[in-house]
Specification:
The chain has about 200 residues and is an alpha/beta fold. It is built from six helices and seven strands, in the order H-H-E-H-E-H-E-E-H-E-H-E-E. The chain has a single domain, classed as Vaccinia Virus protein VP39 (Rossmann fold), CATH 3.40.50.150. The radius of gyration is 16 Å and the shape is globular.
Length: about 200
C-alpha cells in the first residue's frame, strides 16, 4: 500500500471519528510511574494522540507523528487549546524512523511494523524507556483489531524485538484462564535502554 493510499485510509477513519479526547494506552496509564523524570518524548503512529497528550501533561517535550493529516490537525488544535508542549507532525514512520539517540521516551500503541523496532531501540537515549502495546495473534474470538496477521504480534515477539533493553514490564495473557477478564488480545512491554 502506498503512502497516499495509507493516508487516505486513515484520514477517512479520523474524519468520521467522534472521539475528541483520545484515551492513552493501557500500558502507559498503568505504568507511567516508570517514566524518566522528564525530557523528550515521541509517540509514533499517534492517531489522535492520546499518549502524546498524557506525556505532555506530565511535562515532557512531546513530538507526535502520524501519516494522517486529519489526525495531526485534530491533535494540533487540541494541544493548542490546552497550551501543551506538543509538536504534532505528518510523517510516515515506516519510511522516516526517529533519529538515533534522540528520545527519552517512545510510545507506540495499536501499530505494528516490525522493521521499526530496531530504530526504536536506537532512538532511545541511555536510560530511555519504550512503552509498546498492540494487538496479538492470541485473542478471544470476536475481539476487534486487525485481521491481517502482519499487524499482529506472535507470542513473546515484543520480548524478542526489545531484547537489547532491560524489560521492566511484560504483559501477554494470551488465551489462558477466564477470557472475560484482563487485557485480552494485546501484548505490552515497558523496557529501558541501559544507561
Amino acid at each position: 500500500m502506498t503512502t497516499d493510499t495509507m493516508r487516505q485510509k486513515w484520514n477517512a477513519r479520523y474524519s468520521n471519528s467522534d472521539v475528541t479526547i483520545p484515551e492513552p494506552a493501557w500500558v502507559l496509564t498503568q505504568y507511567d510511574y516508570l517514566l524518566p523524570p522528564g525530557g523528550h518524548a515521541l509517540e509514533l503512529a499517534c492517531g489522535l494522540g492520546g499518549n502524546a497528550i498524557r506525556l505532555a501533561e506530565k511535562g515532557f517535550m512531546v513530538t507526535a507523528w502520524d501519516i494522517s493529516d486529519v489526525a495531526i490537525r485534530t491533535l494540533q488544535n487540541f494541544s493548542l487549546s490546552r497550551n501543551l508542549m506538543l509538536n504534532a507532525e505528518i510523517r510516515d514512520v515506516e519510511r522516516e524512523p526517529p533519529e538515533p539517540t534522540s528520545q527519552d521516551v517512545i510510545v507506540v500503541s495499536n501499530f505494528l511494523h516490525l522493521p521499526l523496532m530496531r530504530h526504536i531501540v536506537d532512538a532511545l537515549r541511555p536510560g530511555g524507556v519504550v512503552y509498546y502495546q498492540t494487538w496479538s495473534l492470541d485473542r478471544p474470538p470476536g475481539m476487534g483489531g486487525p485481521s491481517n496477521p502482519d499487524f499482529l504480534l506472535k507470542r513473546n515477539e515484543l520480548l524478542q524485538a526489545f531484547s537489547l533493553l532491560d524489560v521492566l514490564v511484560f504483559h501477554d495473557e494470551g488465551l489462558a484462564g477466564d477470557l472475560d477478564h484482563g487485557l485480552r488480545g494485546q501484548s505490552a512491554i515497558v523496557a529501558r535502554k541501559p544507561a
